[in-house]
Amino acid sequence: MKKFVSLLLALALCLCLAVPALASGHELYIEYTNGEMDALNDSGSGSGWSYDSNTNTLTLNGLKDANIFVSELPQGLPTIVLAPGSKNVLTGITADSLSDSNGYEITIKGTGELIVYDAAASEHGVFRGFSSSVKLLDGLTMTGGTKEGDNGALAFKASPDEDRTWYTCMAGNQPATYIRIAPTAPAKPSITGFTDVAANSTFEEPIKWAVDNGITTGITATTFGPGNTCTVKHILTFLWRANGRPGDNGNESAAVAAWAADALGVDASSTSAPCTRALAVTYMWKAAGSPSASASSFTDVPASADYAQAVNWAVEKGITSGTSATTFAPNNTCTRGQIVTFLYRASK
């Protein structure tokens, strides 16, 4: 413990901080990098902070260039509240010898932002002492690393020190010198407008293309159903629309069936079965005029298979690839998201 306190004192001196005697009766301090200090015994407020001793709550409202230091606080670590809209920038949070028990959980809540950053604190990090975990409320998340702007996961690591155990917030195997606690960023809306299509997902651009070009619509006004099974009827209809709706006379089902029979050699009288990967690339290959392509080397696609050329073409054109380096999985069922993705890539 003495070693730890000495390290804290050394850090404070390096930051040109005034260091009070631990027996002064003060238990909670805000130490500023300009050498000034606020000692919080009772409820009060200062620049960027307010403290309620009755609830042991420290509210931050724009606190900057300061270290929060807790020592011998009878009621334990204070709950830190991040005031709405506030951005708080600290150089450290330190909890020292609160009691004989090891490990305290510090609670942080609110809707503001807290950054704890000190590039010089590489030996012990910026979040250290006897706080062994952080409880985040109100949708707050904690990320950081060893340099400003890092966005990695953090974890507390125990370090024995004489007869006590103290903790350091770690980024991998290095003490974290940059920590950011802030509300979870709202999910970016998908450009498709569908609630079940995540922004930047694999299917986002293809689904938007398919809807914009009249290839298909959502299964409801707000959902697309990218994981729903795609039937043979679906892909034949999508392909027919993507190829300019040949023979369209107002009866879509009849026109799709006639085109499928003529252009693809497919009997569309019974098309409720799920569409497999082999069928999907075969229909698309035939619609493209059955072009030749270099042979692929999938162990589950025999050279003699009637869909082998279609697989070769689809892979060569970048429409799809294998499900592994050596397999294509021709019998796997396709989803709506996968089929419109194949069609989107084929249109390039």
Protein traits:
348 residues; eleven-stranded mixed β-sheet; alpha/beta; 17 strands; six-stranded mixed β-sheet; disordered N terminus
The helical percent reads: 10-25%
Distance between the termini: 66 Å
How much strand? 25-35%
> Could you list the spans in which at least 5 consecutive residues all have pLDDT below 50?
1-26
What is the count of helical runs? 7
What's the main sheet like?
11 strands, mixed
The rough form would be described as: elongated
Number of strands: 17
Give the helix/strand class.
Answer: alpha/beta
Q: What is the string of SSEs from the N terminus onward?
A: HEEEEEEEEEEEEEEEEEHHHHHH
Query: Taking Cα atoms only, what radius of gyration do you get, to the nearest Å?
Result: 31 Å
Calculate the mean pLDDT score and round it: 86
Structure description:
It is a single chain. The protein is an alpha/beta fold and 348 residues long. The chain contains 7 helices and 17 strands. It has helices at residues 2-14, 204-212, 232-242, 252-264, 277-287, 308-317, 336-346, and strands at residues 28-32, 37-40, 44-46, 49-52, 57-60, 64-71, 79-82, 87-96, 104-110, 113-117, 127-129, 131-136, 140-145, 155-161, 164-171, 174-175, 178-183. The strands form 2 sheets. Strands 1, 2, 6, 8, 10, 11, 13, 14, 15, 16 and 17 form an 11-stranded mixed beta sheet that branches. Strand 1 (28-32) and strand 2 (37-40) form a beta hairpin. Helix 3 packs parallel to helix 5 (277-287). The longest helix has 13 residues, at 2-14. The protein is elongated, with a radius of gyration of 31 Å. The relative contact order is 0.08. The model is unreliable at 1-26 (pLDDT under 50).
